[in-house]
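TASK: fixed-backbone design
INPUT:
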């Protein structure tokens, strides 16, 4: 019995030792595997560097020639001009605006410049000069984003609102989330942009926006009639209180009543609450003024915050810098070609 007890701890120690040994071997293999990966990556990098160094003169001369050719292409290509305008849509006309901008680009892609010219009321030759329309959210500050986030949180259930953070809200916004939009146009003709404004202005009008504006006007009319009715009631009460005050002021005994036994009583004055009536009238008139202001401020489907320039500015981007792009492409192609050549030689020598 005692021998069995002695053998049991020894066997457990052997099992633990084997377990630790297996774990150690596993980590050793893992480290070797990761090390081999890094060595392979380093070998490939060195292989590429050697291919570049061995053919350095050819690569440099080819890049210089490509740069000269790219510079010649830059000077030969027709310049592109761009201009932009800022607009603020109302009554959800921004949906129609985005749709129409995509439609204009589709017409350009299909080379249907006749239809494009009809939409913008310009000649077909001028429409043929237009390259692209763009629409992007307008400029906004961090405070604008915070106010937009707070307005969104007010419309969400309180339980759900705790799960929506500011950063997540900003990431999930789309082109339709903004209130101000920047419309950009690229064209070969530098003075065409002003003539496009009339056509762009018509893109905001659609049946949905018209109905929404009519609904807004109907609600304003209802609120206005309610406020006017309340003002009339306040005026009626004011007339009644004025009459009461006149009667009190004309009392001969100045509010004192004498009884038959010679005793006198003081008559209480009627509490007319003139201040409360005046305060209520001011509140109603302020509400009426706000309704009138809202109708005046939003009586159109959009406001133009800034118009197109008379003459567009020349457009330039990194992809149009052929003097840089061509040498870079040449470098990559030659490097890969010399690398593949060196790799093929290595494979052939490896088989031998």
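OUTPUT:
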């Amino acid at each position: 019995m005692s021998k069995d007890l002695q053998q049991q701890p020894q066997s457990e120690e052997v099992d633990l030792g084997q377990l630790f040994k297996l774990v150690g071997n596993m980590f050793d293999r893992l480290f070797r595997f990761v090390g081999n990966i890094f060595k392979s990556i380093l070998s490939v990098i060195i292989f590429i560097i050697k291919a570049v160094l061995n053919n350095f003169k050819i690569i440099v001369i080819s890049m210089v020639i490509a740069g000269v050719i790219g510079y010649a292409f830059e000077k030969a290509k027709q310049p592109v001009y761009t201009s932009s305008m800022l607009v603020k849509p109302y009554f959800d006309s921004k949906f129609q605006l985005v749709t129409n901008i995509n439609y204009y680009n589709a017409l350009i892609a299909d080379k249907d410049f006749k239809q494009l010219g009809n939409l913008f009321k310009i000649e077909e030759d001028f429409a043929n000069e237009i390259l692209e329309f763009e629409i992007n959210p307008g400029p906004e500050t961090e405070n604008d984003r915070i106010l937009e986030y707070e307005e969104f949180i007010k419309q969400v259930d309180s339980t759900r609102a705790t799960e929506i953070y500011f950063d997540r809200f900003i990431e999930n916004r789309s082109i339709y989330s903004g209130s101000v939009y920047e419309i950009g146009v690229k064209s070969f003709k530098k003075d065409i942009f002003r003539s496009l404004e009339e056509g762009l202005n018509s893109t905001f009008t659609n049946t949905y926006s018209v109905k929404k504006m009519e609904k807004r006007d109907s609600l304003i009319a209802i609120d206005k009639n309610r406020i006017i009715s309340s003002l009339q009631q306040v005026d009626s009460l004011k007339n009644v209180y004025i009459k009461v005050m006149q009667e009190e002021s004309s009392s001969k005994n100045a509010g004192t009543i004498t009884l038959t036994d010679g005793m006198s009583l003081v008559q209480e004055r009627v509490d007319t609450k003139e201040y409360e009536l005046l305060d209520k009238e001011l509140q109603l008139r302020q509400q009426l003024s706000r309704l009138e202001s809202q109708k005046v401020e939003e009586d159109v489907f959009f406001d133009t915050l800034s118009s197109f320039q008379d003459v567009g500015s020349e457009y330039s981007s990194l992809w149009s810098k052929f003097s840089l792009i061509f040498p870079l492409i040449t470098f990559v192609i030659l490097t890969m070609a010399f690398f593949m050549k060196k790799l093929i030689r290595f494979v052939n020598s490896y088989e031998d």
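COMMENT: The beta strands are 81-89, 130-137, 181-187, 256-258, 264-266, 302-306, 313-314.
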